[in-house]
Each structure stands twice: as structure tokens, then as C-alpha cells.
Amino acid sequence: MSAKTQVLYTADFNPKIKTYLLLYTTLILFLCLITIPIIPLALIIAPFFIGKYFDRLHCQLTTRSLQFGKGFIFRTEKTIPLDKIQDLTFKEGPLLKAFGLSILKVETAGNSGQGTADLTLIGIVGASEFRDKVLDQRDLVTESKSSSAESGKESESMISVLSEIRNSIKVIESKLTDGS
């Protein structure tokens, strides 16, 4: 992380995610009828992997980006620049509500598919406050970029005016030296 980038907020994840993931996995196995015999084995093995997954969950809001990491066997690290974030969407279903959880989907500019999210965060404690902090920081970043772009346009126009003045002075000097 550069000296200009600092962590503004670190999100905490609700430990109920572990129970939610275990129940969700069990329901999926149950709905796929041929996988019902696997359920007892999954109930023995899955808590270990889910616990390791939970231990490696992290999400940080920095001055310039949103950083997220997850995974036990397959590790995922993602950094999304704040100026690319278009929307943060909440999603709650009956199972999520039962556990007091919500899903926060981060959608960015140039999203590949309609309705797909670039980042999905499950079970952030205080998700609405986290969403507000991310959107506020995004607005600060985009405002500073637009103001610097405007000042860049102003300096370009000033340079062109100064160049015209210089050219005019050269013409005047050449006429004065020719006349003397």
C-alpha cells in the first residue's frame, strides 16, 4: 500500500455466516436428490472448511479502493478502485433474514454481465453503514478527480493563451527590429 493510501475502515463479518453456509450447502445437497447420501459426510467435513473460510474473510475500505479477500483452498483477493464502483446493492432472502445476514453486491463500470456483481460480500456487520461509508468515499474520490481534470483543462487553456501572447510579442519584436 502506498503512503497516500490508508485504511479508513475494516469490515467485520458476522460469525453466523458459518451456520448459514452449512445450512445452505445442506439444502443444496438435499434438493439434488442423488446427493442426499452425501449429507452426513458433508455435515462432518464442511464445518472445518467453513471455519477456515471465515477466518480468511477480510474487507477494507481505503482512501482509493475497496479490498476484499476470501477462500481457504482457492484464495481470492480483489481490489476495486472506488471511482469504478457504480452501485452497492443489498440482497436479503428468507434464509439470510433468519440469520440476520445480508448480501452486499458491488457493481462496477464495465460490468461484463447484466445483473452480475463484481464482488459479493455476505454477512458484513453493519452492512448499511459500511455501504454508506464506501459511497461517501467514492464520492470524495470522484469529486477530486473531476476537479483535477477541470484544473487540467484550465491550465491547458492558460498555456494556449500564453503561447498566443508569446507569438504576438515575437511578431511585435520582429516588426520593431525591421523598422529600425
Task: Explain what this protein looks like in three dimensions.
The protein is rod-shaped. It is built from four helices and seven strands, in the order βααββββαββα. The chain has helices spanning 16-31, 39-55, 94-99, 127-179; strands at residues 7-11, 58-62, 65-70, 76-81, 85-91, 103-108, 119-122. It is 51% helix and 22% strand. The N and C termini lie far apart (64 Å). The strands form two sheets. The protein has a four-stranded antiparallel sheet. With 180 residues, it is an alpha+beta fold. The model has no long low-confidence stretch (mean pLDDT 86). The protein has one domain (7-179): Roll (PH-domain like). β2 and β3 form a beta hairpin.
Give a quick set of tags describing it.
180 residues, alpha+beta, 3-stranded antiparallel sheet, 7 strands, rod-shaped
Summarize the structure.
With 180 residues, this protein is α+β, with helices and mostly antiparallel strands. It has helices at 16-31, 39-55, 94-99, 127-179, and strands spanning 7-11, 58-62, 65-70, 76-81, 85-91, 103-108, 119-122.
Shape: rod-shaped
Structural class comes to alpha+beta
Average pLDDT score: 86
CATH topology: PH-domain like
Task: Determine Rg (CA atoms, Å).
Answer: 27 Å
CATH class: Mainly Beta
User: pLDDT below 50 for ≥5 consecutive residues: which ranges?
Assistant: none
Tally of DSSP β-strands: 7
Cα separation of the termini? 64 Å
> What is the CATH H-level superfamily?
Pleckstrin-homology domain (PH domain)/Phosphotyrosine-binding domain (PTB)
Mind telling me which CATH architecture this is? Answer: Roll
Q: Which strand order spans the largest sheet, edge to edge or round the barrel?
A: 1-2-3-4
Helix content percent band: 40-55%
